[in-house]
Amino acid sequence: MTSAGSSTPRTRGRRGDRPMVPKAEFESYYGRPVIKAPSWAATDIAGYFFLGGLAGAGSVFAAGAHLTGRPRTATALKVSSLAAVSLSAAALVHDLGRPGRFANMLRVLKPTSPMSVGSWLLSAYGPAAGVAAASAVTGKAPRIGALGTGAAALVGPAVASYTGVLAADTAVPAWHGVHRELPYLFVASATAAAAGMALVTGPTGENRPARCAAGLAALADTAVAAAAERRLGMVAETWREGRPGTLLRTARVLTVSGAVGAAVLGRHRGAAIASGLALLAGSACTRFGVFAAGIASAEDPKYTVVPQRETKRT
Amino acid sequence: MSEERVGFFTDTSVCIGCKACEVACKEWNAIPEDGLELTGMSYDNTRALGASTWRHVAFVEQPRPDGRTRLPLADGQQAAEEPAPDGGEVRWLMSSDVCKHCTHAACLDVCPTGSLFRTEFGTVVVQQDICNGCGYCVPACPYGVIEQRPADGRAFKCTLCYDRLGTGLEPACAKACPTESIQFGPLEELRERAALRVDELHRAGVTDARLYGHDPDNGVGGDGAFFLLLDEPEVYGLPPDPVVTTRDLPAMWRHAGAAAVSLLGGIALTFVLAGRERR
Ligand code: SF4
Ligand code: SF4
């Protein structure tokens, strides 16, 4: 007979707790989770976070390139933003199971629902990104194209940052605990992805802003991620251990080395492409890592119970 | 709300774990079965609340921790202090769990379609024809109640028998409960009754008896379904201090706004820093 309520559940793949916080006494119901993890597929939703960020930040980047006379980079990023937002919408619809169900998203506009706000943001952003890309590729209607470019650049940042709220507005400890930091982490990661895309697709003669942005993004990404882990206290284990830990560490390495590579060697085509790919991959790893950390924190009742016992005591 | 707010008071001190509530709920609401495996962990083969389990009877069967409540309780008295043959003592705690019908319901707040709504009875119900299966309500619920049905994708949970309330009937689980462990009625009345019951148990020496979810000032603004427990909430699989996450939403939107502005500003800055390309 197993000892029931007081059993300390086994935690999967853990290599010994780090003694950063004293081992907390905690009880649970046969080690079963207290909250329910989202049933979202990682490829759909973490993929959606990554693509939304790439699209949103990419539109801002495209507008900058457009304004500063870097036409090839501008066109490349307008196209990549349109592709990314289309793919991200496809991921969202795929997660709903039946495409017809997406229509229900636009029944109401609810500020208390980040998913509702996001659906409306996407329906404003998508067409703007589409107009910007179509005009850039065909060379037709430059005025309307410029308008689309501007609109996409204004809505794009919201598309990149709201996903931080989408994840944080849940009872998932590893997400809600960093509801202040997550939007900043997501825009830093989005900037890294857009800079990466600019390095891969833009000519080296136009890539100074991308090399600059890569450096800024890597700095911000590293600093915010460290702040987030500090804020999480014992829940930060879920950001450090197991698969999420591996993903997040890989993300740091890729982002920083991509940024350094871009800064130092970005004038060479090959190096620019390699650095850009590293930045894109780093951004994707950040999203998948944060997503996986959330799932891990929802599945282990410890991360729900122990922090709540602390707040209850104070 | 046109009607008086109603809810459940579940007094676990009289629960005998018969599962009449689970069965009555399944029958009345025509909920599909959700697998017939044995868990091997206890007599509880239902495991948890879910899309197809709207009442769940928890069975805590364990060596009694020192000084903690024994079960069963007879007339508020604790069971005899007979030690088990091995010197220890085994205790059973039973509790029928359900959706809390929170005053501030995260599931309702985050639902993007408006499918989750508050009824005239102050309860929280999903409109199945509107739910689009986005699954956002699932991780939003701080109690782990609502869930998507795998093949269907849409979210389901306790409706507090909305259809029965409309015709003046009490919910099926409360009707079926033979010990009146599940009590249904106007929330105010239930809270008074619960306070009396806790006092009674305390006087009888059951010092671990406590109410859970009764306080309108708790993290979810009070539960429409609250409990009398005989040990810490987490022993029963309940969160000790749940908070509706939308409480922090204004701060989240502010940070998202600031993050969006910093993205715009940051990229603008890089274009300034980069200046013209060197040829
Ligand atoms: S317990 Fe969960 S599902 Fe029930 S009303 Fe509260 S938030 Fe919604
Ligand atoms: S799964 Fe259904 S009920 Fe839940 S948030 Fe989405 S639309 Fe609303």
TrEMBL record, chain B:
Under the cellular component aspect of Gene Ontology, which terms does the record hold? cell envelope
- Report which superkingdom the organism of origin falls in: Bacteria
What keywords is this UniProt entry annotated with?
Answer: 4Fe-4S, Iron, Iron-sulfur, Metal-binding, Repeat
Cofactor needs: [4Fe-4S] cluster
Cofactor descriptive note:
Binds 4 [4Fe-4S] clusters per subunit.
Q: Which InterPro entries match?
A: 4Fe4S_Fe-S-bd, 4Fe4S_Fe_S_CS, FDH_Electron_Transfer_Unit, Formate_DH_Fe-S_su
Q: Which Pfam families match?
A: Fer4_11, Fer4_4
Q: Please tell me where [4Fe-4S] cluster 1 binds in this chain.
A: C15, C18, C21, C177
Task: Supply one GO BP term.
Answer: cellular respiration
Binding, [4Fe-4S] cluster 2: C25, C158, C161, C173
The record's principal subcellular location, in a coarse class, is other
Which CDD domains does the protein's record reference?
Answer: FDH-O_like
Q: Which PROSITE patterns match?
A: 4FE4S_FER_1 (PS00198), 4FE4S_FER_2 (PS51379)
Q: Where does [4Fe-4S] cluster 4 bind?
A: C111, C131, C134, C137
Read off the Gene3D superfamilies from this record.
3.30.70.20
Which subcellular locations apply to this protein? Answer: Cell envelope
* PANTHER family assigned: FORMATE DEHYDROGENASE, NITRATE-INDUCIBLE, IRON-SULFUR SUBUNIT
Q: What is this protein called?
A: 4Fe-4S dicluster domain-containing protein
